[in-house]
Amino acid sequence: MRSIPGRPPRGAPAKTAARRGRQIFLVSPAASAYAWQPRRQAGVPMMVRTSNERFALAVLTVLVLDQASKLLVLNNLGYAHERVIWDGFFKFVHWGNTGAAWSLFRDNNGLLTIISLVVSAALMMGRKKFAPPTPAGDYTMGMVLGGIVGNTVDRLAHGHVVDFLYFYLRRRSGDELGFPAFNVADSAICVGVFLLLLYSVSAGNDGEAARKTVTGENERQASG
Question: Which residue from 71, 72, 64 is spatially nearest to 157, judged by alpha carbons?
Fold first, then answer.
C-alpha cells in the first residue's frame, strides 16, 4: 500500500514503526505535528530532537550565554572594578578566579584546566551513566558540561575564570558579608548537579518502593 509522507496509510495501526531509519506514523494529526519535524537536509520527517541534539543544544546555550555575559563585563568594567546595582545587596564586579568554585584551590589554574578537560571528556563519553534517559536528563547534563567548558575557555584565554555576579550584605560596621562571586557557567553547573542529585534520590526511593512491593507480593503468594 502506498503511503503519503507525513501521513499514516489507510488501515494502519495507531503507531507503526519501520526499522533502519524509516519514519514512524502517528494516527493523530496533532500528535504527528508535535512529534515530527521535517528535516530539510534529508527531506524526511524525524524526531524533533535526538538525545545527542538536546545535549548539544544545552551545552551550546550555556556556553554562548556564559561567554557573551563575560564579554560584556570585559568590555565595560575594568579588572577589579565594581558597579553597584543594589547597594547593600548586589553588584557587578570584574574579578579573576585562579581556583575552583568559591575560590577554592587558588593559583592552580593550570592543574584545574587539565582536570576540567578530563572531566569534560568523561561526561561526553559516559553521560548516559550519570543522567536519566529522558529529555530532562539530556538538558541537565548539557548544562553541567556547558558550564565546565565555559570556565575552561576562560582559563585558557585569560589565565583565570571571570566572575562578575556578587551578592552581599553590609554589616553595621560597614564591612561586606558576601557570597563568593560567580558567573553563568557556575550557575549552570550548580543547577545541573542539584537536579542530578534530585534524580538520584528519587530513583533510589522508587527502587526501594518497588522492592517492597515485590517482596510483599511474594510473601502473599507464599502464604496463600
Answer: 71
With cut-offs at 50, 70 and 90, classify the pLDDT of residue 132. Answer: confident
Task: Out of 66, 138, 154, 163, pick the active-site residue.
Answer: 163
Nearest residue to 165 (alpha-carbon basis) of 59, 52, 82, 62: 82
Q: Quick: pLDDT tens for 7-17.
A: 555 555 544 44
| Burial of 43: CB neighbours in 10 Å, binned 0-12, 13-18, 19+ | exposed
Do 162 and 74 meet the contact criterion of CB atoms below 8 Å apart? yes
Within 8 A by CB and 6+ apart from 148, the residues are 116, 119, 120, 123, 185, 189
Place of cell 562578575: 164
The question of whether 186 is a catalytic residue gets the answer: yes
Structural domain boundaries in the chain:
1-48, 51-215
Q: Which tens digits make up the pLDDT trace of 157-194?
A: 999 999 999 999 998 888 889 999 999 999 999 999 99
- Catalytic annotation, pick one of 66, 138, 154, 186: 186
Q: Whole-prediction pTM value?
A: 0.70
- Contact (Cβ atoms closer than 8 angstroms) between residue 131 and residue 196: yes
Whether 87 is catalytic: no
